Structures are given as C-alpha cells and as structure tokens.
C-alpha cells in the first residue's frame, strides 16, 4: 500500500483524535444537573482520593438529588450538599480527613466545605465563581468544572437564597440512572 501525504495526515489526525478520546475516557466525571443545564465536573482523585470516593458514593446513592444551593455568595461561591438546606446537615457516612494540596482555588474549582475542624468534611461542597486564593491549603480541592459553568453562574444568590435552586440530579458519568 502506497502512503501519500494526505493519507498520512488523515491517519495521524485520526490517531490523535483517538488518543484524545482515550484520555477523556480515563477522566472521572460528574454530571451536575440544574434547571439551567448540565455542569460537568472533573474529579481529582490524584489530589483528594478520599473526598472523591465519598462524593462518588453519595452520588451513586442519589443523595444529592433535590438538595438546595443553601449558600450562594456573588463573587465567591455556590455551596450545596446539605440535605437539610441549613448548612448544618450531613450524610450518614463518616467525616473525611482534610486532603489539603497546593491546588489553586480559581473560577470553577470545586472544594469541600467543612466546619472548624480540618477533618470535618462530609457531603457539602462548593463551586467557586471567582478565585478564592485565601482558601488554599485550608480546604480540599477535589474537582474542577470543565463545562457548564454558565449554569452555575445562574444560581440564585443568598444565605440562604429565597426559593433556592436545587440540584436536579448528580451522577457519576457512566452511572446515570
């Protein structure tokens, strides 16, 4: 078979595309659906394996379905994950020890909420609207928004918001039942 330049370029492009697809298949993704649309979160087990495992477990149990965004501060973040909507609720799973890293809290960073105790994270998390560098090495980064941040931007503001927006459903990619 004779290879000319066009076949080589087409073959190389197809190989590159297949490589990109394979890399994407390895990503651990969450689908966070709101009434505004779907936000895709890439989980980061490389820096927060215990937090990612907890979020995955709860998502597979449909724990987050219908849970409100109970604390939404313009220019800072949208917090959710509390089934009571008060900011004091938690899951039946044990708390997670802090997994602090050098990762930066930027727009789209997903971090774990906690109480005064560094090891008190359980189920609540937040998505940053803007950089929050003062949180670094004090709160656990466990993910990042890779698409759909515009839907997070639409969430009603307040502490708590009047008639808060809710998570319609949160699913691990590949387990979307």
Automatic annotation (TrEMBL):
It catalyses: [protein]-peptidylproline (omega=180) = [protein]-peptidylproline (omega=0). It is an enzyme of class 5 (isomerase). Keywords: Isomerase, Rotamase. The keyword Transcription does not apply. Residues 37-166 form the PPIase cyclophilin-type domain. GO terms for molecular function: peptidyl-prolyl cis-trans isomerase activity. GO terms for biological process: protein folding. Its EC number is 5.2.1.8. Belongs to the cyclophilin-type PPIase family. PPIases accelerate the folding of proteins. It catalyzes the cis-trans isomerization of proline imidic peptide bonds in oligopeptides. This is Peptidyl-prolyl cis-trans isomerase. It comes from Methylocystis heyeri.
């Amino acid at each position: 078979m004779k290879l000319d330049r066009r076949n080589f370029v087409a073959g190389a492009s197809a190989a590159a595309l297949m490589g990109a697809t394979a890399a994407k298949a390895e990503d651990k993704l969450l689908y966070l659906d709101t009434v505004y649309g779907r936000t895709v979160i890439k989980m980061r087990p490389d820096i927060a394996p215990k937090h990612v495992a907890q979020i995955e477990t709860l998502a597979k149990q449909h724990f987050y379905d219908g849970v409100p965004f109970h604390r939404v501060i313009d220019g800072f973040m949208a917090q959710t994950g509390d089934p009571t909507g008060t900011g004091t609720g938690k899951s039946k799973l044990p708390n997670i020890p802090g997994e602090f890293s050098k990762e930066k809290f930027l727009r789209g960073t997903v971090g774990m909420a906690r109480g005064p105790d560094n090891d008190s994270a359980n189920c609540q998390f937040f998505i940053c609207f803007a950089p929050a560098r003062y949180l670094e090495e004090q709160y656990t980064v466990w993910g990042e928004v890779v698409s759909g941040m515009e839907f997070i931007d639409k969430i009603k503001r307040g502490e708590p918001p009047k008639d808060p927006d809710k998570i319609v459903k949160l699913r691990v990619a590949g387990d979307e039942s």
